[in-house]
Amino acid sequence: MRASPGQTTVAAFAFALAAVAAFAQQSSPPQPGSANYRSSKARVVLLSEVKGDVALDDNTGIGLRKAFAHEPIAERFSLQTGTGRAEVEFEDNSTLRLAPYSRVEFSRLELLPSGAKASTISLLKGTAYVSLIPSYVVDNKGDNFLLIVGQEKLNLRPSNHIRIEIKEAEAQLAIFDGRGQIEGPFGTADLHRKRTLTFNLQGESVPVIEKKIHEIPFDNWDRWTTEYHTRKAGLAHPAGKGSRASSVRWDDLFR
């Protein structure tokens, strides 16, 4: 029996709805916990600066060896400075810097299905600086940057610029810029710019907060390189969100 025009129209409409539903299911991003949710280790993280005594453990089983500038950094690597200093550069020009006699481990460096980047780094000893490029320069709002110091977890956000020092059983966190959050045995606290937090690495006491930052000798090196990388990111993304860094000339970088 031949289908009537009305039946044909209904069947065609049902088929179209099914096609749209199938397309939507295929094009929507996979959800955490689903079979299609897969992160990637395809990150472009580089050891951008090496000055003096710096060693790298690249997870090959041979332990620490001499490090060289422009080497890639991958998950489960560790970096250590002796009398030297080092800088690690991430994809968006955000940076991690190590002063002398410091060590970090890169426990997580992943590219998520959404395109956002997840980084977890542990400071084991010494002094580290972290400067994250502002989101008005680079679209990095979905990125996750976690810095672990003892039992404390620093959840850093775009525009964060910090210095963290481990001194025996305590650590001192200086927040130059930006806002974030710290989690530890004492609970959770928000990070505010121009503050210094001193906390016990082995206890549950609430951090002591000062409304000022004490300068140390390597702050000038950190400040100059932070400005350089922010301007470099602006030049690499000149059309990004009305970036204030996009108008910087190359000559300005070397004044």
How is this structure best described in words?
There is one protein chain. The radius of gyration is 23 Å and the shape is globular. β17 and β18 form a beta hairpin. 16% of the residues lie in helices and 37% in strands. The protein is built from two helices and 18 strands. The chain has helices spanning 5-27, 219-236; strands at 46-51, 54-57, 65-66, 71-72, 78-81, 85-89, 95-98, 103-111, 117-125, 127-131, 144-149, 152-156, 161-167, 170-177, 180-184, 187-191, 195-200, 208-210. The strands form two sheets. A nine-stranded antiparallel sheet has the order 4-1-6-7-10-13-14-17-18, covered by helices on one side. Strands 3-2-5-8-9-11-12-15-16 form a nine-stranded mixed sheet, with no helix packed on it. The protein has a domain at 105-254: Jelly Rolls (Sandwich). With 255 residues, the protein is of the alpha+beta class. Mean pLDDT is 83; it is low at 8-36 and 241-255.
* Alpha-carbon distance between the two ends: 86 Å
Strand order of the largest sheet: 4-1-6-7-10-13-14-17-18
Rg (CA only)? 23 Å
Q: Any low-confidence stretches, pLDDT <50, length ≥5?
A: 8-36, 241-255
Sheet bearing the most strands, described?
Answer: 9 strands, antiparallel
Q: What is the average of the pLDDT values?
A: 83
Dominant shape: globular
Q: Just name the CATH architecture of the domain at 105-254.
A: Sandwich
Q: H/E order of the elements? A: HEEEEEEEEEEEEEEEEEEH
Q: Helical residue percent?
A: 10-25%
Query: Can you identify the CATH class of the domain at 105-254?
Result: Mainly Beta
Overall number of strands: 18
| Fold-level CATH name of the domain at 105-254 | Jelly Rolls
Query: What share of residues are in beta strands?
Result: 35-45%
Counting helices, strands and paired strands, the structural category is alpha+beta
Number of helices: 2
